[in-house]
Q: What sequence folds into this?
């Protein structure tokens, strides 16, 4: 039986591809060959309707990775979540990306998350990230209004609502669409760096640019921690076509990570 290399923790092992057969009814699979001496970074991308799954390979000999293309009528968020669960490779990261599901408890949360699960794939945003932001911003209150006039589930200020064409910020679906659109933009702007995206959602991308990282504001640093307690996928897929990266990106990327 064909086998593919996967990585778990710091050890290489071979996973039986029978596990992937759980996904094949939902997706078409093809193989890509990585030449000897080449590298192929692990990624789970959900852009342009294609979910690409590859695992880090430092190929001394040629190796293969697999690409899954979801059928047109498949819930891409479901397929992505199942792919992460099966092939997340780095177990702590996969667990961090799915922890949020266990926290969806009330009828209101389930109703709101049904909207998120329907819309998130359209914006290339993991539903777990949307869940964590909604929980931190409004605690699932669609009528929440802050002292700074941030409104609705994802607490859109009027400027952000206008920027992403939200005319009724207290309408749950419109608000979620606006918040997802902003997250999609931030993901492209900060090249999928989760902590920077979350910090920018709270403090604005200008503040993250200015400090070339998470700003030293207690509110923002606490906000990032609250999000990461619920959803801690440090590298999130992003669509580079949405916007150019931050002009500060070369300096941000060069800074040592804590």
A:
């Amino acid at each position: 039986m064909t086998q593919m290399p996967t990585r778990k923790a710091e050890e290489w092992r071979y996973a039986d591809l029978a596990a992937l057969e759980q996904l094949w009814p939902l997706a078409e699979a093809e193989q890509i060959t990585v030449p000897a001496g080449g590298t192929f970074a692990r990624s789970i991308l959900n852009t342009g309707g294609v979910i690409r799954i590859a695992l880090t390979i430092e190929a001394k000999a040629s190796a293969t990775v697999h690409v899954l293309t979801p059928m047109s009528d498949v819930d891409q968020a479901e397929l992505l979540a199942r792919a992460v669960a099966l092939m997340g490779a780095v177990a702590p990261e996969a667990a961090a990306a799915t922890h949020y599901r266990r926290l969806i408890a009330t009828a209101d949360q389930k109703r709101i998350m049904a909207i998120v699960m329907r819309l998130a794939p359209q914006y290339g945003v993991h539903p777990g990230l949307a869940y964590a932001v909604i929980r931190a911003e409004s605690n699932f209150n669609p009528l929440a209004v802050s002292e700074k006039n941030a409104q609705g589930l994802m607490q859109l200020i009027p400027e952000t609502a206008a920027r992403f064409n939200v005319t009724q910020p207290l309408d749950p679906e419109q608000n979620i669409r606006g918040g997802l659109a902003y997250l999609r933009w931030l993901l492209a702007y900060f090249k999928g760096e989760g902590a920077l995206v979350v910090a920018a959602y709270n403090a604005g991308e200008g503040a993250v640019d200015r400090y070339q990282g998470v700003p030293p504001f207690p509110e923002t640093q606490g906000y990032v921690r609250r999000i990461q307690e619920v959803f801690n996928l440090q590298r999130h897929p992003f669509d580079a076509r949405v916007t150019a990266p931050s002009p500060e990106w070369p300096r941000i990327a060069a800074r040592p990570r804590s």
About this structure: The chain has ten helices and eight strands. Confidence is low (pLDDT under 50) at residues 1-32, 38-74, 86-94.
